[in-house]
Amino acid sequence: MTKVVAAIPAGGEGTRLRPYTEVIPKPMIPIGIEEKPVLEYVIKWLKKFGIDDIVLLVGYRWKQIRNYFGDGSRFGVNIRYSIDNDNYRGTGGALLNAFKNGFFDSDIVLVWYGDIIAPIDVSSLIAKHIERKADIVIVLANRYKVPVGVAKVDKDKVIGFEEKPWINLYVSLAILTITPQLLTYAEDHLGTSFDIMGDLIPWMVSRGFNVIAYEYHGSWYDIGGVEQYKKLCLDDVKIFVQE
Asked: Which interval of the chain is the signal sequence (predicted)?
C-alpha cells in the first residue's frame, strides 16, 4: 500500500491577520459555529480520508498549537511537530527541514497549508499522484474571483465595468502532493531556504519534472487576511466544518 504523510505548514507569523495573530498563531484562528481552530477542521478532514499521520511544520507561537492538539490522539490521528530552523526558511525550507529530520518515511507527502479550507476528495488526489506517476500534483481551481472591480477602457473612456468578476484562470489552492525524495534534488539547486509555490514548483516545471494538475471545481477559502476572515460565511463552510 502507498504510505501517505500529511505536512501542514503552520509556522508563519500571519502578518495579514494582525492584530489577531499578535495573540494567537494563524492556524488557531476560530471558524465555524463552534469557533474551533481552522487547523482542527483541516485535520479532521484529512482523517475522513484515512490520512492519520500528520506533521505540523510549526514556528511562531507553536506551543499554543501543541498545547491544543498534543499528539493528536483525541482526534484519532498521530501528530508530530517539526519546529522551524533558522537555517531552513520559507515554506519549502520548513518542508525540507522535516524531510531531513526523518518525518517523511512515506511514498507521498500531502502538503496542505494550515489556513486553507476546501472539501477536496483527498483519495482522488492521492490516486491521481499514483496513476500519473507524478513527482508533484498541484490542486488548481479553474476560476478566480477578482477581489476588486475590473474596468474595460478604450483610451480614457470606461466602456465596461464589473464588480468582483469571476475570471477563467487556473489558480493554486496551496494544496499539493509530492514525492518527498525529490526534496534532495531541490536542496542541491535551491538551497535550504525557499518557498514551495514561488520557488519549488517553478523550478520543478523548468527542469521537466512530472508536475500534474488536479482540477478542483468546488468552493474554497483562504483564511489568510483580515478581510477574508471577516467575510467568511458560516453557511459557505458548513460542509467542510461539519462534525
From this structure: none
